Write a sequence for this structure.
C-alpha cells in the first residue's frame, strides 16, 4: 500500500525528521550523553510510570517507584493474577512507545505544544511525589532510591513547565517532537537489549521478560518478541495518523504556515 505525506503534514514531518536526526547523531558524538541524559531519565520515568498505571488499572497497588542515576528504574507493585502480571510487565516498554506515539498524535491533531509539555510535567510530578516519595515513606520501604528520584522528578517537572511558559511556539513544538523521538527510540533500543538478555546463551538478568517467564513458564524471549511486535504496531499506527491530512481546525500556536489552494 502506498503511503504519502499529506501537504499540511509536511512541515511537521520535517521537524520530526530533524529531531530524529539530531537524536541519532548525538549517539556518535563523544560525551554527548551529557546532553541526552535528562531525556533518558524522562523516558525512565515514563517506563516506570507505565508499570504503575497498569498496576492501578488492574486493581493492584503501587508500593514505590524509583529512578537511579544510571537511568535504570524499579517499580514495586502487588502482583494480582496472570493477566494483570502480563499487563504490568508489558506496560514499561509498550508504555514508553505509546507515550511517544501519543505526543506525536497530540501535536498533529491540533493540541498546543505548551499543553502537552504541561501535561507531561504534571505526570512526572505526580509519579515523583506519590510513588517516588510519599508511598515509600509511608510504607517504610527502601528509602535509598528516594533522593535521586525526587531530585530528578522535580528537575524535569520544573524544566517542562519553564519551557511551556517561556519558549516560543516553534521551540515548544520541536521540544515535544524531540521528547517523542526519545521515547520511541529508547523503547526500541531497550527492547533490543532485553531481547539479547533473554537469549538462552545470555547470562541471567532480572528483566520484565524474565518476570513474565517465571510467571508463565514460557521463554522470556517470546515475551520480548510480543512486545517488539506491539511496539512497532503502535509506532506504525501513530505515524499513519501523523502523516494523514488534518481537518479544518488548526493549532493556535503551531509555528508552521499552512497554504491554501487557489
Amino acid at each position: 500500500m502506498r503511503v504519502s505525506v499529506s501537504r499540511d503534514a509536511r512541515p511537521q514531518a520535517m521537524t520530526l525528521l530533524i529531531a530524529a536526526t539530531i537524536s541519532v547523531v548525538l549517539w556518535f558524538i563523544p560525551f554527548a550523553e551529557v546532553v541526552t541524559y535528562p531525556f533518558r531519565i524522562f523516558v525512565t520515568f515514563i517506563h516506570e510510570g507505565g508499570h504503575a498505571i497498569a498496576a492501578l488499572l488492574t486493581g493492584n497497588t503501587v508500593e514505590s517507584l524509583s529512578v537511579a542515576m544510571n537511568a535504570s528504574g524499579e517499580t514495586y507493585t502487588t502482583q494480582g493474577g496472570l493477566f494483570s502480571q502480563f499487563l504490568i510487565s508489558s506496560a514499561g516498554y509498550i508504555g514508553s512507545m505509546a507515550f511517544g506515539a501519543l505526543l506525536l498524535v497530540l501535536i498533529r491533531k491540533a493540541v498546543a505544544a505548551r499543553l502537552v509539555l504541561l501535561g507531561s510535567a504534571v505526570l512526572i510530578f505526580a509519579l515523583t511525589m506519590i510513588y517516588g516519595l510519599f508511598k515509600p515513606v509511608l510504607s517504610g520501604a527502601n528509602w535509598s532510591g528516594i533522593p535521586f528520584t525526587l531530585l530528578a522528578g522535580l528537575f524535569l517537572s520544573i524544566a517542562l513547565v519553564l519551557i511551556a511558559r517561556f519558549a516560543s511556539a516553534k521551540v515548544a513544538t520541536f521540544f515535544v517532537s524531540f521528547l517523542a523521538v526519545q521515547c520511541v527510540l529508547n523503547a526500541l533500543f531497550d527492547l533490543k537489549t532485553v531481547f539479547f538478555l533473554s537469549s538462552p546463551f545470555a547470562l541471567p538478568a532480572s528483566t520484565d521478560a524474565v518476570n513474565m517467564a517465571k510467571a508463565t513458564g514460557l521463554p522470556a524471549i517470546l515475551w520480548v518478541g510480543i512486545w517488539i511486535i506491539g511496539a512497532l504496531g503502535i509506532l506504525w499506527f501513530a505515524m499513519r495518523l501523523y502523516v494523514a491530512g488534518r481537518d479544518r481546525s488548526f493549532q493556535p500556536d503551531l509555528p508552521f504556515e499552512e497554504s491554501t489552494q487557489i
Summary: Residues 89 and 163 are 32 Å apart (CA to CA). The first strand starts at residue 62 and ends at 67. The chain is about 70% helix and 5% strand.
